[in-house]
Structures are given as C-alpha cells and as structure tokens.
C-alpha cells in the first residue's frame, strides 16, 4: 500500500478560511497528498509564538481525495507542533509548506510573520519547510499566476531536500508577470512611525499598529527587497541558528570582572 | 543638564508585576536611569509576535528617582516598539534590557521567548540589547546572586557596544554559585512529546503544551546548554539576520524550470 505521492503538511497564519491557503492546497494537491492544520482564526503577526496558558483544540474540517483539513485554536507554531504529534502516526510528512500569506514577509518581517513561524517550527522539528507569501494584503488577492512557481520550487525542495536547520522564505511581488526567481539574503531595514494614535471621548489614547518600511540598503542587488522591487520571486534561505558567530569570537576578549 | 548616567529601557514577557523584572530594575538602577515598559499581563511564549488586530494602550505606574514604569496591553515586541516611539522624545536609550525571565531561554527556546522578542526588537531598531533569563520557572525564584553578573555584563555592553543587528541572550543556570561566564553558540536541540491530552466529560479533547527538551549535541562543549549544565552563565551572541548563507550559495545551481 505504498503511496508514491509526497505527503505535505500545510499551515498559514491568516486562518484556514483564507483564500491564500486554499489556493495553495489547490496547487499542491496536483503533485502531493495534503494535510492542512491551520489556525481557526486569523493569527497574523504571531511570529514563533506558542500558547502555554490555555489548552488547544483542533477540529476536522472538509475532506476530499488526497486532502484532509483540520483547524486548530492556536498559533501557526502550535498548529505545526500539534499536527506533527497527533496526525502523522503512520507516515511522517515529506515537507511542510506555509501560506500563501496575504502580505510581504521579506526582510525583517520574517521575525514577525506567523507564516514563517510555521515554517521555522517545521524546520526546528527536522522537516524541510517553505513559506510562500504574496505582497498583497487584499483578502481577494489573485494567486493563480503563482502556481507554476510554487510547483517548481516545491518540486526542487522535494528533490534536493534542505540542510537540517534551514527553510525557505519565498515572497512574490505584486506584479502580473514574474521576471523569474532570485535566491537572496534578508534585507537590512526596519519599520518607521509604527503607531497611529486615536483618542477616545473619555480622553484615553489608543495606538493602532501601522508603519512605513525603510530599506537600509536600497543599492544592494542581492537582497530579497531588491528582488521584489524588480519583479522577481525572492527566495531567502533561512536558518534557525541565531548565533552571531563573529561576535562570539570578538567577545572572547571581554572582561567579565565579577565584583561580589 | 547633561545626564551622565546611562539610560536603559527595560521590558520582559512575564508582565510588569513579575519578580524577575522588578529585581532586574533594582540591579540596573545602581548604574543607570531606567524606564520600564512591560506587558500588563504575562505574555510568555510570545516570540516576536506583534498585535495588529486590536489597538494598544499603556499606563504609567510607580515612579521613583531614576526609575519610571509603564505597562502596555501588548506583547513584549509591542512594548519596545511603543516605548521607543512614545517615551523617548528628548533622549534615546543607550541600551535595552529584557528579563529577568522566569525560565530557560537557551537553545531553540530563543525562538519562542518573548524575553528574546523584546531584545530582538531593540536590536531591529538599532539599539544594543540584552535578554537575561534564569533556569527557574518559580514565581518566587531567587535572583539576588545574579546581580554582580548582570551588572558586569551590562557594563561591558555599555562600554563595547554591540555590532548592529546583534544582541545577547544570557541564561543563568539554577545553581547557588555560578562558575563564571561562557560565550556560547545556540545548542541544536528540540522539544519532544509536547502535548498532554485531557478529555472533557462531553468527549472533547484538549491539549496542554508541555514537553521534554532533547539536546541533539550533548558532547559539544561550546553550546549554551553545555554551559548551563556545567554551572556557567551562558551568553549566546544572537543575530537578527536569518539568512542561511551557505544554502544561498548552494541553491544557485537549482533549476527553477517554470512550466506555464
């Protein structure tokens, strides 16, 4: 009863009802069997957050040939953890795919992204993992033109594998036709003017998150932001090892003189 | 009216009432002026999560000479973002310090930690940043013996600075006397058996997060986990650049053959 089709676990951070994840499942089911475990509610900006103060639950949803769907009360990271522990008793997934996110996860956004949180968790658990995002927050964004790229990138990862402790952060620019694929590094940049203050009638101030992205190296042509700005699909290979190795060497000469 | 004392912004993820942050403020105020912006409620496991679906608010709390305290409805990352935008109009902080966390943030825990989330956000905003954690979840954990180490490490960072895009993840073992300080790398490891299932009378299953940490390289002596296991204070220099550079090179030969 060996199944020759790959098995892919899919999650996202926009919730299981989002158009992006349902389009992604439609693309992937042409080349693989798919199990979905996605957040019940939208969980954008979850990063690698986990839920420790309340218990999680999950529910089985629609099933069709080759696709089984669940949704989970937790974050994207919780979804991956719970799916890997509960749903794959016989056969482990060959790949974990997250997205398609409604919005850009390039540059520093990788830190805040729940879409990347799911991919990083897959990676932490030893699985190859890919996060796909489109630079369009629209709930009805058009994803169909991404299909051949998503199929090609997924097939390459299934064929080559990924080194342990790495995953791919793949972002698509908001253009009608992609110029091709660039393998990039994470752009140095940051968000500016991140809050919009509103005052209630009672005088209380409230702060809504907003902001403008600033690219700190607009001249560099090897960054994910440059690729997106120039119409390319940006693949940023991503590591879960956060060690700053050069600083580790430099700090060997620091003097930690402890005065008890 | 120049103020010669450094100015330090302090946050955490256990909430502004936690013993750990209040002990930390007590230590730091001996060498610096301190502004606290910490979560109103405990937000353990927040990672780099941000709040986008509801607005934030913050409240001024206790004030004493050299220490001003605020608490914020958001995550640790939100706290740092909002503090930097709202509280430092005249003079920017010299350093951002997060903690003292009640619990271990070494190895892969750095990804899930809200304590590290605050330090990473400081780092993303261009400030030197340190996260301090003690391997003791007890609400009444004893922190006093950490004081000379926290003072020494903080002074060294104020003196040397940190390269842009890097911060320090500092973890203290649960021992009465520390053997010294080790500058380490992030241990490769993972959490196992992460859920405890409970069944309600109505048949619903609920899943509480739990788990056992597994060190995948127990023989390595340059890791943060080894340092902690052997009684040393573990300093893990940490980068916000997630790029997997070796994989970026290796992937240049991949074939992204797009079949339209």
Description:
2 copies of one chain form a homodimer. With 260 residues, the first copy, chain A, is of the alpha/beta class. Chain A has one domain (7-188, 219-241): Stationary-phase Survival Protein Sure Homolog, Chain: A. The first copy, chain A, is built from 7 helices and 13 strands. Chain A has helices at 19-28, 76-86, 109-112, 114-124, 147-160, 224-229, 245-250, and strands at residues 7-11, 33-39, 58-64, 67-72, 95-102, 129-134, 166-172, 181-183, 189-192, 195-199, 205-209, 212-215, 233-239. In chain A, the strands form 3 sheets. A 9-stranded mixed β-sheet of chain A has the order 3-4-2-1-5-6-7-13-8, sandwiched between helices. In chain A, strands 9-12 form a two-stranded antiparallel sheet. A two-stranded antiparallel sheet of chain A has the order 10-11. At the A-B interface, helix 2, helix 3, helix 4, helix 5 and strand 11 of A face helix 2, helix 3, helix 4, helix 5 and strand 11 of B.
Main sheet specs of chain A: 9 strands, mixed
Which CATH first-tier class of chain A would you pick? Answer: Alpha Beta
Indicate the low-confidence ranges of chain A by residue numbers.
none
CATH architecture of chain A: 3-Layer(aba) Sandwich
Task: Give the number of domains of chain A.
Answer: 1
What fraction, in percent, of the residue positions of chain A are helical? 10-25%
Strand content of chain A: 25-35%
Biggest interface, CB < 8 A: A-B, 87 and 87 residues
